[in-house]
Specification:
Blueprint lengths: L14 H6 L17 E5 L2 E6 L8
Antiparallel strand pairs: 1-2
């Protein structure tokens, strides 16, 4: 959550997110300490909610 310590693996993800997510990709423990990339797919468009190590070209 905003202001909290960054999560570094899917096991730390709060249950509320797991229950409401359509898909969670578990890439293992974050190696460089950067928070995960969070996206929303809406009407065939990718919307970046938080940019992490995975970058999307626009």
């Amino acid at each position: 959550m905003s202001g909290d310590k960054s999560l570094t693996n899917v096991k730390q993800l709060p249950e509320v997110f797991k229950q409401n997510a359509y898909l969670i990709i578990d890439g293992g423990e974050a190696k460089i300490g950067i928070a995960s990339t969070i996206i929303r797919v809406e009407d065939d468009k990718i919307i970046t909610l938080r940019e992490g190590p995975i970058k999307f070209e626009r």
